[in-house]
Design a protein that fits this description.
By secondary structure, the chain is mainly beta. It has 2 helices and 7 strands; from the N terminus they run E-E-E-E-H-H-E-E-E. The protein is 6% helix and 28% strand. A hairpin with a 5-residue loop joins strand 3 and strand 4. The C terminus is likely disordered.
């Protein structure tokens, strides 16, 4: 989607009325990433703010590494509930509303609790997922578009909390000096 977001473009499904699908049937983007360490990998997905338009279905995206089973994540992480629709009283009355998921506040990109920092003012919502890296080296990161309303703007792999930033560090392509892309 050219000219949408802060970069050259964002990625989304067209038409937005497309049916939701399971990750096994979902279209996906894949990126080659160099992961120098094993263990827990934090991935932050920056999406454009979106409302929970079908509360009975939810708002989902999935993330996977290599050929492992992708993790479906609730894209309402960090949702700014300005109109207080997700209160305990409303959740108790509604057969469709689900509680908002928690947000990983250890990631400093999120700006949680900082003045005027949320999806409304940043025009971006950060989702986080933890993936297990069994072997260091080149891997394939896959982002699956489960529900069509989500527009992907940015991906940050292993954000560096020592140097918090507004939208993550500038992109870095590995292998340019060796001709590998």
């Amino acid at each position: 989607m050219p000219d949408l977001g802060r970069g050259k473009a964002c990625m989304g499904i067209v038409p937005v009325t497309t049916e939701s699908v399971s990750p096994g049937d979902a279209p996906y983007l894949e990126y080659q990433v160099l992961l120098p360490d094993t263990g827990n990998l934090s991935v932050c997905i920056g999406i454009l703010p979106v409302q929970d338009v079908y509360p009975e279905r939810g708002l989902r995206i999935a993330v996977g590494l290599d050929d492992k089973e992708p993790q479906v994540i609730d894209a309402r992480q960090g949702f700014h509930d300005e109109f207080r629709e997700y209160t305990r009283a409303n959740l108790a009355k509604s057969p469709n509303l689900k509680p908002l998921p928690g947000q990983d506040t250890s990631i400093r990109l999120l700006g949680k609790g900082q003045p005027r920092r949320d999806e409304v003012f940043d025009n971006q919502r950060w989702l986080t997922v933890k993936l297990d890296v069994e072997k260091a080296g080149m891997h394939t990161l896959k982002i699956f578009m489960v529900d069509p309303e989500i527009v992907l703007e940015r991906i940050v792999v292993n954000p560096d909390n020592r140097y918090p930033s507004y939208f993550g560090a500038p992109e870095k392509r590995h292998g340019q000096e060796t001709g590998l892309d």
